[in-house]
Aspartate aminotransferase family protein (Paenibacillus contaminans), 413 residues
Amino acid sequence: MGVSKSQQWAERSLRSIPWGSSTCSKAPSFLPEEPGVIVRGKGCRVWDADGKEYIDYRNGLGPVTLGYGYPAVDEAIREQLANGIVFGHPHTLECEVAELACELIPCAEQARFLKTGGEALAAAIRIARHYTGRDHIVQVGYNGWVNALAAGSATLPGQKAQSVPGVPAAVSALHHASAWNDIGQLERLFEQYDGQIAALIVAADYEHIGAGKTFYPAIRALTEKHGALLVYDEIVTGFRIAIGGVQQYFGVNPDLAVFSKGIANGMPLSVYAGRKEVMKACDVGGTVISSTFGGEMLSLAAAKASMTIYKEQDVVGHLWKQGERMWGGLNRIFAEKEIPMKMAGLWPCPTFVAEPGAKADLKERFFRLAYRHGVSLYNVSYVNYSHGDQDIDETLERLQGVCEQLQKEMEAE
């Protein structure tokens, strides 16, 4: 059997692109079962270069919340395309989408736009430093490659490094990594750098996100006590577990928040927003944060359409309902077939977790078999608004076969 077109593309990409992709997490690691490239998507399904169809739960690593080729969003993009992509002055969409963001995000009194979540968090860090006059930053979770600066920080989702290549030691010394739901560690950091911490930036731990019920109030009190800003990384949680993310779900507002995935159904856009008093730090005369493409209109048109759909239809309710149908169903299959793995966390953004005692390669073997059966998964997997009951049932039927095969392999070992 020859090498597939999809795999040929993966090998060709490696010759001209480090990692074989500009996004590390998109580079295929489970070839030949995993598609080397995807060339088309519709609804909740994607196709590789060989025409093989996959029911997709990667959703562009999270941004595709409504579905591939969602008609209302695509129509908004086409309509704006006919009128221009970017101008030398602001467009009305920039104001309209900022107003929508301030309406839908609890902490937002003002908002501005960039293209990626990582750079928006970098903007929030600069705002915090200017606003407080302090230099040190404490970070929980993965906040994007731009901000993976501390020793022991997450350099990629789920991957930590004691030192970050390419980051000067003097810069790294101003950034401090802390664990999710470890208020004791945070208190020690705030005592060690008393009066020097500008901001605490928090991205939820998807496996243990339920701990946010007590953790978010605790860090709100901690930052207020020490005069630091509280910043939420809502890049995954925003427009998913609630329209307004964890701040709406848990009822604890930060000073600043960053949203990106989910806000424009796959178009590149990020929002950094917060209290007007704090956002004033990047106003005229403050720290300069500026990007030619911050107000690019195709993404803003997609965001306006997407956010309007979120307002008018129960998108989040669908993500919870279908998430429970999909991931709860998969957990039942795992239990039935005695596969030591589970989906943990909240239904709109759960993560695969191997049970204690499971072999190190269990997750890889499961993923390879899933790809072979036409199901595309990721460590944090999502349903989108286009996943219907039939799609979920078909997926579970395919994964039933995957688990039966994996069970047989495990019994034969």
Observations:
- The radius of gyration is 22 Å.
- The CA atoms of residues 115 and 269 lie 4 Å apart.
- The domain at 5-68+314-412 is CATH 3.90.1150.10 (Aspartate Aminotransferase, domain 1).
- The mean pLDDT is 96.
